[in-house]
C-alpha cells in the first residue's frame, strides 16, 4: 500500500511517534519512538530484549500515530503489521539518531541485539479535529 | 491506586494524551485526547458514537500515555481499565475545553450522547529515555 503524502511528511520529519502493541494478555501497551519511512514501510528501532519486541513477535498487529506539530489537532494513525529483523551494524538506529539527535547512535554492548521494526500499513486514518476522520488508504 | 506526583503533574497540565484501545478483532487503535485527573482516576470525553467508545464497552482495557513537553524523552504510561458513563450536561467536556482551548465546549446536537471515560490505573510506568523504565504503582 503506497504511503500518502501527508503520512510521508509527518513520518519523515523528526516527529516522535506513538506505537501501540499487544501485551501477553492482549491488552494495549504504548511507547514513544523515533520513526522513519523507507519505501512504503514505516521503520523503528528497538532492542530484542524489549517488551515491545516480544509483543510484536507474538502478535504483529500495531497502531502507529504521529501528531502534526504545526496543527496539534491533526494526526495520522497507521494500523498495520510489523516484521522484525536484526538491525545489522545498527544502521537504522544510527540513521534515526542522526535525524533526531543530530549525532551517531550511542554505543551499546555488542551482545545487545538491536532490531528493525518494519510496519506495513493496512489502514491509514487522518484525524482533522472535532472527530472528523478521513481514510487515506 | 493513588496517582503518583509525576502522573498528576503531566495529566493535570493541558498536555495531549494518547489513548490506545482494542478494536473488534483485538488489534490496537490509537487516538489523541484531552485529559484530566479526578481523584485517582484519569478522565476523558468522547461521543457514544465513536469507535473508541464501542471498543471500551466491549473490552475496557486501555493504555494512556502523556509525553513530558519539557523533557520529550520522558513520558508516563498508565495501563488500566475504563468505565463509561454519560457526561450529563457535558460537564467534563466543558471543563476540558476550558483547560485546553480556553473557551466553553462547542455546541453539539442534543441527541449526540457524550460520555465520560474514567480510567482506573492498574500499572503505571515512567520512561526516562534510553530504555530506562520505572514502575510508579
Task: Give an overview of the whole structure.
- The structure is a homodimer of 137-residue chains.
- The first copy, chain A, is an alpha+beta fold and 137 residues long.
- Chain A has a single domain (5-135), classed as Pnp Oxidase, Chain A (Roll).
- The first copy, chain A, is 20% helix and 42% strand.
- Chain A has three helices and eight strands.
- Chain A has helices at 5-12, 51-58, 91-101, and strands at residues 17-22, 28-33, 36-38, 41-47, 61-67, 75-86, 114-127, 133-135.
- In chain A, strands 1, 2, 3, 4, 5, 6, 7 and 8 form an eight-stranded antiparallel beta sheet that branches.
- In chain A, a hairpin with a 5-residue loop joins strand 7 (114-127) and strand 8.
- Chain A is globular, with a radius of gyration of 15 Å.
- The mean pLDDT of chain A is 95.
- The A-B interface holds A 16, 18, 20-22, 26-32, 47, 50, 61-65, 67, 72, 75, 77, 79, 106, 127, 130-131 and B 16, 18, 20-22, 26-32, 47, 50, 61-65, 67, 72-73, 75, 77, 79, 106, 127, 130-131.
Secondary-structure blueprint:
Two copies of one chain form a homodimer.
Chain A: H1 5-12, E1 17-22, E2 28-33, E3 36-38, E4 41-47, H2 51-58, E5 61-67, E6 75-86, H3 91-101, E7 114-127, E8 133-135
Antiparallel strand pairs in A: 1-2, 1-5, 3-4, 4-7, 5-6, 6-7, 7-8
Order of helices and strands of chain A: HEEEEHEEHEE
Total number of β-strand segments of chain A? 8
Q: Report the sheet with the most strands of chain A, covering strand number, pairing sense and barrel closure.
A: 8 strands, antiparallel
The CATH H-level homologous superfamily of chain A: Electron Transport, Fmn-binding Protein, Chain A
- CATH architecture label of chain A: Roll
At the fold tier of CATH, the topology name of chain A is Pnp Oxidase, Chain A
Q: Average pLDDT across residues of chain A?
A: 95
Amino acid at each position: 500500500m503506497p504511503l500518502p503524502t501527508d503520512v510521508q511528511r509527518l513520518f519523515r520529519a523528526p516527529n516522535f511517534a506513538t506505537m501501540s502493541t499487544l501485551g501477553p494478555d492482549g491488552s494495549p501497551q504504548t511507547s514513544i519512538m523515533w520513526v522513519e519511512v523507507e519505501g512504503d514501510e514505516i521503520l523503528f528501532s528497538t532492542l530484542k530484549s524489549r517488551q515491545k519486541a516480544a509483543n510484536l513477535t507474538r502478535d504483529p498487529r500495531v497502531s502507529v500515530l504521529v501528531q502534526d506539530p504545526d496543527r496539534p489537532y491533526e494526526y495520522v494513525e497507521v494500523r498495520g503489521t510489523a516484521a522484525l529483523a536484526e538491525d545489522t551494524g545498527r544502521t537504522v538506529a544510527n540513521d534515526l539518531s542522526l535525524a533526531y539527535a543530530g549525532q551517531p547512535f550511542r554505543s551499546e554492548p555488542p551482545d545487545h541485539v538491536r532490531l528493525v521494526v518494519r510496519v506495513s500499513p493496512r489502514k491509514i486514518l487522518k484525524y482533522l479535529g472535532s472527530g472528523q476522520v478521513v481514510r487515506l488508504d
